[in-house]
Amino acid sequence: MVIGSIVFDIYIPHATSLKEKRMVIRSLKEKLKSKFNVSVSEIGNQDLWQSAYIAVVMVSPEKKQTEKIMQSIINFVESNFPELHFNIHKELI
């Protein structure tokens, strides 16, 4: 069993309020949950308008499968949210 985690350090340049930021983050979280069946949570910077930390966690039986899913998630986020800036941190356990 392999646990994969991705932490997205996100900068949202067009957000001018917490409401705008939360709309973007909610959309990102819902799309990831429905498309990849993973756990997603905002884990930091909840009170900042243009910054967020989002954690995505999954479990699979093999390392290769986990790495493939993680890369698919990263590609999906980068292609569907091009207006956002990301720093990405991956870890396999």
TrEMBL record:
Pfam families in UniProt: DUF503
Transmembrane segments: none
SUPFAM superfamilies: Hypothetical protein TT1725
InterPro entries for the chain: DUF503 (IPR007546), TT1725-like_sf (IPR036746)
PANTHER family in UniProt: DUF503 DOMAIN-CONTAINING PROTEIN, HYPOTHETICAL CYTOSOLIC PROTEIN
Protein name, UniProt field: DUF503 domain-containing protein
